[in-house]
Amino acid sequence: MSNSVTLTFWQLLALALAPAVLTFIAGIAGPYVLEGRKQDAEKREKRRQKFEEFVSTIYEHGHWLDTQRAIMVFQQDRPSTVSPFAKMQAICSVHFPEFEQDLAELNRLSDAYMLWMTEAAQKKLNGDKGYADDFASAYKPYSGKVHSLLSKLKEYARGELQVGHWSLSTHTLSFLQRGSVWERWKVWFKRFSG
Length: 194
Hints:
This protein is mainly alpha-helical. It is 76% helix and 0% strand.
Protein backbone atom coordinates (compact mmCIF):
# COMPACT_ATOMS: atom_id res chain seq x y z
CA MET A 1 0.00 0.00 0.00
CA SER A 2 1.38 3.33 -0.91
CA ASN A 3 1.14 6.39 1.21
CA SER A 4 -0.24 8.92 -1.13
CA VAL A 5 -1.44 12.36 -0.29
CA THR A 6 -4.34 13.81 -2.11
CA LEU A 7 -4.33 17.54 -2.57
CA THR A 8 -7.18 19.64 -3.78
CA PHE A 9 -6.88 22.03 -6.64
CA TRP A 10 -6.66 25.02 -4.31
CA GLN A 11 -3.93 23.44 -2.23
CA LEU A 12 -1.91 22.72 -5.35
CA LEU A 13 -2.45 26.25 -6.58
CA ALA A 14 -1.34 27.67 -3.22
CA LEU A 15 1.80 25.52 -3.28
CA ALA A 16 2.60 26.63 -6.80
CA LEU A 17 1.89 30.33 -6.32
CA ALA A 18 3.27 30.86 -2.78
CA PRO A 19 6.93 31.19 -3.86
CA ALA A 20 5.94 33.52 -6.69
CA VAL A 21 3.87 35.73 -4.36
CA LEU A 22 6.65 35.83 -1.76
CA THR A 23 9.20 36.72 -4.45
CA PHE A 24 6.93 39.45 -5.75
CA ILE A 25 6.44 40.93 -2.25
CA ALA A 26 10.18 40.78 -1.53
CA GLY A 27 10.88 42.41 -4.89
CA ILE A 28 8.54 45.28 -4.09
CA ALA A 29 9.26 45.75 -0.36
CA GLY A 30 12.95 44.82 -0.36
CA PRO A 31 14.30 48.00 -1.95
CA TYR A 32 12.25 50.17 0.41
CA VAL A 33 13.52 48.30 3.46
CA LEU A 34 17.10 48.44 2.20
CA GLU A 35 16.83 52.15 1.42
CA GLY A 36 15.44 52.82 4.89
CA ARG A 37 18.34 50.97 6.50
CA LYS A 38 20.82 52.81 4.30
CA GLN A 39 19.35 56.17 5.29
CA ASP A 40 19.45 55.23 8.99
CA ALA A 41 23.11 54.25 8.67
CA GLU A 42 23.89 57.55 6.91
CA LYS A 43 22.12 59.51 9.65
CA ARG A 44 24.09 57.67 12.35
CA GLU A 45 27.34 58.34 10.50
CA LYS A 46 26.53 62.05 10.07
CA ARG A 47 25.66 62.32 13.76
CA ARG A 48 28.93 60.60 14.69
CA GLN A 49 30.83 63.00 12.44
CA LYS A 50 29.07 66.02 13.99
CA PHE A 51 29.86 64.67 17.43
CA GLU A 52 33.52 64.38 16.53
CA GLU A 53 33.45 67.91 15.11
CA PHE A 54 31.78 69.15 18.32
CA VAL A 55 34.46 67.60 20.54
CA SER A 56 37.21 68.80 18.23
CA THR A 57 35.83 72.34 18.42
CA ILE A 58 36.02 72.22 22.22
CA TYR A 59 39.75 71.53 21.88
CA GLU A 60 40.07 74.25 19.23
CA HIS A 61 38.50 76.69 21.65
CA GLY A 62 41.05 75.75 24.32
CA HIS A 63 43.84 76.32 21.81
CA TRP A 64 42.29 79.64 20.82
CA LEU A 65 42.28 80.70 24.49
CA ASP A 66 45.97 79.72 24.74
CA THR A 67 46.71 81.92 21.75
CA GLN A 68 44.74 84.80 23.23
CA ARG A 69 46.65 84.46 26.50
CA ALA A 70 49.97 84.46 24.63
CA ILE A 71 48.95 87.60 22.74
CA MET A 72 47.31 89.50 25.57
CA VAL A 73 49.29 88.54 28.66
CA PHE A 74 52.72 87.79 27.21
CA GLN A 75 52.53 90.19 24.24
CA GLN A 76 53.64 87.50 21.81
CA ASP A 77 53.30 88.25 18.13
CA ARG A 78 50.81 85.64 16.94
CA PRO A 79 47.96 85.87 14.50
CA SER A 80 44.65 86.32 16.26
CA THR A 81 41.65 84.44 14.89
CA VAL A 82 37.95 84.35 15.56
CA SER A 83 36.81 82.26 18.51
CA PRO A 84 35.44 78.85 17.51
CA PHE A 85 32.80 79.12 20.22
CA ALA A 86 30.04 80.15 17.80
CA LYS A 87 30.69 77.02 15.74
CA MET A 88 30.56 74.94 18.91
CA GLN A 89 27.22 76.52 19.88
CA ALA A 90 25.78 75.97 16.41
CA ILE A 91 26.68 72.27 16.38
CA CYS A 92 25.35 71.85 19.90
CA SER A 93 22.06 73.64 19.18
CA VAL A 94 21.32 71.69 16.02
CA HIS A 95 22.66 68.23 16.86
CA PHE A 96 23.18 67.94 20.63
CA PRO A 97 20.80 70.29 22.49
CA GLU A 98 21.16 68.20 25.66
CA PHE A 99 24.56 69.85 26.20
CA GLU A 100 23.42 73.49 25.80
CA GLN A 101 23.49 74.24 29.54
CA ASP A 102 27.01 72.83 29.86
CA LEU A 103 28.09 74.94 26.91
CA ALA A 104 26.51 78.07 28.41
CA GLU A 105 28.47 77.45 31.62
CA LEU A 106 31.66 76.89 29.60
CA ASN A 107 31.03 80.19 27.82
CA ARG A 108 30.59 82.01 31.13
CA LEU A 109 33.84 80.55 32.51
CA SER A 110 35.63 81.28 29.25
CA ASP A 111 34.53 84.91 29.49
CA ALA A 112 35.80 85.10 33.07
CA TYR A 113 39.14 83.67 31.93
CA MET A 114 39.33 86.24 29.11
CA LEU A 115 38.59 88.98 31.65
CA TRP A 116 41.52 87.73 33.75
CA MET A 117 43.74 87.91 30.65
CA THR A 118 42.73 91.51 30.08
CA GLU A 119 43.37 92.43 33.70
CA ALA A 120 46.73 90.60 33.74
CA ALA A 121 47.79 92.40 30.55
CA GLN A 122 46.87 95.74 32.13
CA LYS A 123 48.83 94.87 35.28
CA LYS A 124 51.84 93.94 33.17
CA LEU A 125 51.64 97.23 31.27
CA ASN A 126 51.54 99.04 34.62
CA GLY A 127 54.75 97.26 35.68
CA ASP A 128 53.21 94.92 38.23
CA LYS A 129 55.59 91.93 38.59
CA GLY A 130 52.79 89.74 39.99
CA TYR A 131 50.55 90.34 37.01
CA ALA A 132 49.89 86.61 36.57
CA ASP A 133 49.91 85.41 40.18
CA ASP A 134 46.19 84.64 40.17
CA PHE A 135 46.36 82.55 36.98
CA ALA A 136 45.21 79.38 38.77
CA SER A 137 42.06 81.00 40.15
CA ALA A 138 41.17 82.20 36.65
CA TYR A 139 42.03 79.05 34.74
CA LYS A 140 40.94 76.21 37.03
CA PRO A 141 37.16 76.81 36.77
CA TYR A 142 37.36 76.84 32.97
CA SER A 143 39.59 73.78 32.90
CA GLY A 144 37.32 71.92 35.30
CA LYS A 145 34.27 72.62 33.15
CA VAL A 146 36.09 71.42 30.03
CA HIS A 147 36.98 68.15 31.77
CA SER A 148 33.43 67.76 33.07
CA LEU A 149 31.94 68.37 29.64
CA LEU A 150 34.37 65.97 27.96
CA SER A 151 33.49 63.29 30.50
CA LYS A 152 29.79 63.75 29.74
CA LEU A 153 30.50 63.60 26.03
CA LYS A 154 32.51 60.43 26.47
CA GLU A 155 29.60 58.75 28.27
CA TYR A 156 27.22 60.03 25.61
CA ALA A 157 29.41 58.53 22.88
CA ARG A 158 29.39 55.16 24.62
CA GLY A 159 25.64 55.20 25.13
CA GLU A 160 23.82 57.15 22.45
CA LEU A 161 26.36 56.79 19.65
CA GLN A 162 27.31 53.27 20.72
CA VAL A 163 31.00 53.99 20.47
CA GLY A 164 32.93 51.34 22.40
CA HIS A 165 35.85 53.63 23.10
CA TRP A 166 36.88 57.24 22.63
CA SER A 167 37.56 56.89 18.92
CA LEU A 168 37.68 60.42 17.69
CA SER A 169 41.15 61.10 16.43
CA THR A 170 44.68 60.22 17.31
CA HIS A 171 45.26 63.81 18.47
CA THR A 172 42.23 63.75 20.77
CA LEU A 173 43.14 60.39 22.23
CA SER A 174 46.75 61.39 22.87
CA PHE A 175 45.54 64.64 24.46
CA LEU A 176 43.42 62.67 26.91
CA GLN A 177 46.24 60.25 27.69
CA ARG A 178 48.89 62.88 28.41
CA GLY A 179 47.64 63.54 31.92
CA SER A 180 46.28 66.55 33.67
CA VAL A 181 45.65 69.60 31.56
CA TRP A 182 46.27 71.70 34.63
CA GLU A 183 49.78 70.27 35.01
CA ARG A 184 50.57 71.06 31.37
CA TRP A 185 49.27 74.63 31.80
CA LYS A 186 51.51 75.18 34.80
CA VAL A 187 54.57 74.05 32.84
CA TRP A 188 53.59 76.21 29.87
CA PHE A 189 52.89 79.20 32.07
CA LYS A 190 56.25 78.93 33.86
CA ARG A 191 58.04 78.72 30.53
CA PHE A 192 56.47 81.94 29.17
CA SER A 193 56.18 84.02 32.33
CA GLY A 194 59.93 84.05 32.53
